[in-house]
């Protein structure tokens, strides 16, 4: 009997018989309970509960013990009797459909009895001499373990089999620096390369393209075996032997054992990628400093050649107050308590084009600097929801004054943030008294108008328009709001809307010099637009007229009429 059955295979199974049938999981079964899986007659009875909640998926390599019997109890096969567990790849048609559908519902360590109708087993042919035609079978199956096997590029180029599960849930990303161990072999087992403790940036890759593709799917401490097709290995050219590494023939498939030991998270702090943070040690919890927080650091500043120009332990400063260089200020806002990081800061966010004499050395012009930072502690600036109403109004007034100072210094982006924060303190005023609402309204109007002036300077005209509109919703006859919105309209080419605002402003304040000057600018813009329009249409009509005269001068080409002689 063992010669006939060393596994429950469906003989002659082709691609059309491979199982991709959707099924309804039997849900949470109790021991002794039986339920149907899907709608083809497959039944599952739970004999022993499994561990955890995970179940295998199609493509995973599963390991089971089983005993197969007919409905009358006649045993036809048993891996238990052989003393060797049976391994196969789930969902690939290597076993009968009832197995593919049933085993994917099991948990590790689970024991279940599957009753499998002939349609999901050996059908009308049976499997002579032990399984008759149209036989319903029963399998007592225990799922011992499984290894996850994934087609990680979805093109069959790299299959990954996890042999040791990793920790947590995060995966490395393109900018991150990973530390790996790996061993590379050809299909015949020939060792190509072996290395421990190799560091590389994911997006830069190492050895062959498969490594960077694979590590992006791995967790910390995970170990996997990769089957790598030539397009992710060394392709048609192969690889020549060098040093301790054996050559790789053209179009060779590789077997790579890869372990992701750890990685350092690397992120761009600024959108232009000129302030980069590499985390050496994760911080605690989720809280980070906010703008205006008092932070305490351990700080070492270096040039790219390693020269230390600054060292302090501890070092305290208030964020968003220009007490340190911009790159450091921005980066600290992304850190958690206890986090240790290395910051690489380009000159634009460091000391710029000027030489800067620091505590321990001079920073030359246009220097990229590196800071080693540990965030020891921080005290956040009080948020609006932690304040009572008088505190909110006071804080809004303070942010407005800070914004005014920054605006006068030409620091429009920072000033804009102050005005925005000032408004946030008092935006929701439903609980304010009538007097407090009046005070809040004055501050809202002032902050929004000043912020609109910032946005005009920053050439963010749509934002300036929105801010002025907010003011006009509160004060419809506010001349500054009309004037600044008109400026925004002019800069985006909405001249008709600009004229409406300017005329309204002049109705309210006929002698306002700034508005009168802006009206002159508007009229000049309108004249320019009218000239351009006249020239455009003039040229267009001239071209049309020229085309018409050419048509009159050209001899007509008459298409020959074909006459059906049979008509």
TrEMBL record:
Enzyme type, top EC level: isomerase
Ranges that cross the membrane: none
Ranges occupied by TPR repeats: 479-512
Pfam families reported for this sequence: FKBP_C, TPR_19
EC number in record: 5.2.1.8
PANTHER family assigned: PEPTIDYLPROLYL ISOMERASE
Family: Belongs to the FKBP-type PPIase family.
Name the UniProt record assigns to this protein: peptidylprolyl isomerase
Organism: Lactuca saligna (Willowleaf lettuce)
Organism taxonomic ancestry: Eukaryota, Viridiplantae, Streptophyta, Embryophyta, Tracheophyta
């Amino acid at each position: 009997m063992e010669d006939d059955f060393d596994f429950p295979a469906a003989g002659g199974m082709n691609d059309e018989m491979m199982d991709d049938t959707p099924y309804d999981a039997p849900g949470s079964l109790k021991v002794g309970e039986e339920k149907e899986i899907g709608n083809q007659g497959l039944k599952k009875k739970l004999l022993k509960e499994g561990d955890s909640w995970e179940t295998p998926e199609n493509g995973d390599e599963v390991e089971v013990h089983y005993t197969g019997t007919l409905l009358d109890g006649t045993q036809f096969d048993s891996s238990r009797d052989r003393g060797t567990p049976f391994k196969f790849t789930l969902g690939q048609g290597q076993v009968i459909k009832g197995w593919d559908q049933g085993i994917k519902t099991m948990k590790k360590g689970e024991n279940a009895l599957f009753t499998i109708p002939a349609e999901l087993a050996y059908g009308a042919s049976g499997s002579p001499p032990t399984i008759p035609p149209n036989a319903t079978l029963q399998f007592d199956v225990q799922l011992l373990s499984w290894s996850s096997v994934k087609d990680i590029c979805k093109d069959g180029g790299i299959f990954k089999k996890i042999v040791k599960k990793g920790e947590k849930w995060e995966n490395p990303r393109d900018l991150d620096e990973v530390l790996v161990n790996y061993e590379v072999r050809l299909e015949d087992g020939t060792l190509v390369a072996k290395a421990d403790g190799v560091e590389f940036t994911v997006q830069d890759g190492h050895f062959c393209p498969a490594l960077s593709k694979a590590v992006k799917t791995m967790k910390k401490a995970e170990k996997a075996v990769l089957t790598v097709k030539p397009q992710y290995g060394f392709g048609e050219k192969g690889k020549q032997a060098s040093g301790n590494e054996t050559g790789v023939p053209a179009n060779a498939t590789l077997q790579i054992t890869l372990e992701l030991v750890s990685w350092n998270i690397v992120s761009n702090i600024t959108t232009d990628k000129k302030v980069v943070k590499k985390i050496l040690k994760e911080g605690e919890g989720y809280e980070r400093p906010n703008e205006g927080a008092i932070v305490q650091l351990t700080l070492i500043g270096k040039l790219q050649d390693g020269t230390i120009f600054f060292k302090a332990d501890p070092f305290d400063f208030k964020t968003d107050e220009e007490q340190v260089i911009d790159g450091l200020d921005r980066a600290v806002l992304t850190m958690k308590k206890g986090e240790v990081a290395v910051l690489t800061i380009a000159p634009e966010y460091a000391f710029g084009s000027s030489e800067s004499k620091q505590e321990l050395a001079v920073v030359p012009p246009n220097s990229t600097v590196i800071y080693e930072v540990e965030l020891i502690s921080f005290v956040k600036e009080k948020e609006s929801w932690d304040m009572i109403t008088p505190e909110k109004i006071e804080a809004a007034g303070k942010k407005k004054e800070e914004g005014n100072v920054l605006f006068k210094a030409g620091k429009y982006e920072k000033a804009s943030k102050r005005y925005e924060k000032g408004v946030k303190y008092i935006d929701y005023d439903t609980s304010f008294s009538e007097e407090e609402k009046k005070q809040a309204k004055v501050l809202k109007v002032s902050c929004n108008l000043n912020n609109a002036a910032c946005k005009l300077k920053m050439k963010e005209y749509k934002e300036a328009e929105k801010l002025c509109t907010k003011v006009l919703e509160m004060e419809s006859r506010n001349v500054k709001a009309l004037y600044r919105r008109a400026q925004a309209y002019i800069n985006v080419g909405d001249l008709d809307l600009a004229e409406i605002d300017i005329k309204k402003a002049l109705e309210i304040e006929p002698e306002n010099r700034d508005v009168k000057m802006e009206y002159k600018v508007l009229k000049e813009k309108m004249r320019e637009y009218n000239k351009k329009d006249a020239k455009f249409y003039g040229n267009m009509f001239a071209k049309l007229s020229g085309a018409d005269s050419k048509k009159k001068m050209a001899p007509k080409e008459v298409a020959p009429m074909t006459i059906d002689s049979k008509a």
